[in-house]
Amino acid sequence: MAMEAEASSLLDSLSAVVVHGTPPLSVKWFSAERHGAELLVALNGRDRRFGVDSIGTDAAVLNTYAVIERFHPDVVVSAGTAGGWRRSGGEIGDVYVSDRHVVHHDRRIDLPGFSEYGIGRYPVLSLQNMAAQLGLKIGIVTTGNSLDESEPDRRMIMASGAVVKDMEAASVAYVCLQMSTPFVAVKAVTDLVDDHTPTAEQFNTNLTMASRRLSEELLRVIDWLIPRELAQLD
Amino acid sequence: MAMEAEASSLLDSLSAVVVHGTPPLSVKWFSAERHGAELLVALNGRDRRFGVDSIGTDAAVLNTYAVIERFHPDVVVSAGTAGGWRRSGGEIGDVYVSDRHVVHHDRRIDLPGFSEYGIGRYPVLSLQNMAAQLGLKIGIVTTGNSLDESEPDRRMIMASGAVVKDMEAASVAYVCLQMSTPFVAVKAVTDLVDDHTPTAEQFNTNLTMASRRLSEELLRVIDWLIPRELAQLD
Fold this sequence. Notes:
The first copy, chain A, is 37% helix and 25% strand. Chain A is built from 7 helices and 9 strands; from the N terminus they run αβββαββαβαβαβαβα. The first copy, chain A, has helices spanning 4-14, 57-71, 114-119, 128-134, 151-160, 169-178, 199-225, and strands spanning 17-19, 28-34, 37-43, 76-84, 95-104, 122-123, 137-143, 164-166, 183-192. Chain A starts with a helix and ends in a 9-residue tail after the last helix. At the A-B interface, helix 2, helix 3, helix 6 and helix 7 of A face helix 2, helix 3, helix 6 and helix 7 of B.
């Protein structure tokens, strides 16, 4: 997870305790036990110079790699808040589970072979059954390092068919793929990209509510995953 | 370094030999000895799915972190090819040394405190004296994950005053800063962003020449750095 505000409700629900991180990285790790399973909630932590949460892909890559190296998790979940679209039926507070693959929308590399590399299309766990049982929406998640959606971003997103826009998932998935760790994204909608209200304003208004929704549904997802073997998931 | 073609001339000149990397990461590492100093040339390696060099920030973060963790280098150099601008006096084949700081131009985050975090402004080694002695250009390097320059990119670049555009430096510097490892970028110009010829076409035409220029000047930079203590550099 990237933001402390996104995680606080989850950490409370889990009665999670601090785990020693990997200094000098700014990561902030918490552990909890649930139905016999070990959970690690790994925040990217605060940036030392700017004092803000370390959002975006660079911090996500570092945190993911450090976690997988140390704990060898069975599954990595990129959880957080995100943007949705009215045109895809998205509503504030919706919780989406990633489907098919995750992509980047801000890596335009018009050289043979590199275009596809830039988009990424990293695989995700196939959880359609779970989503149907839990009543969660599913769709393609797309990642970029900007809160807004530029015109080139919009074109890439239209081409990928993505319905959720975040700032970390594809890069977490990139590390997971290299480390052969199964991956899924769970994202709660704070803002609608195609709404007339500016994204930053929607984000600030809805962050608390969406983080609570994220925590509720993430616990249901975790409880669904815990008793199952990876091979039976689909 | 991100691309094998950018590195091959340097690897030949150094008679570098393969070093075991950090599986399962795709990094490709080579070592060499020069004037009593140990050099490690760390390529991001080929992407297993797409068969292309792992350019861009995610692969750069992983490689940099893995190298620093393993080798604790005295200095990290982000070396490669890059774009320049006619308006800044850039010419194809120019080799630039990073000056003042490196920035991102594709991380627009319009939330209090996050705008500056997105831009990054990571410090670089102060090497004005070296650049003057070696006759190299200096300037602010800016990083983004796209080969082209979108309109929002252009606005961010105008605001930062950057004169060199690459796809890795700022993210390498981000990791170096967290690990307290001194950082500098050395970039050879393959294309002029404000030329009428498309960037991809210029890149393909000039990659071999710019990589040879990079190797020549990088060796001069390395030879200048080797006998000096970090504290005396400026």
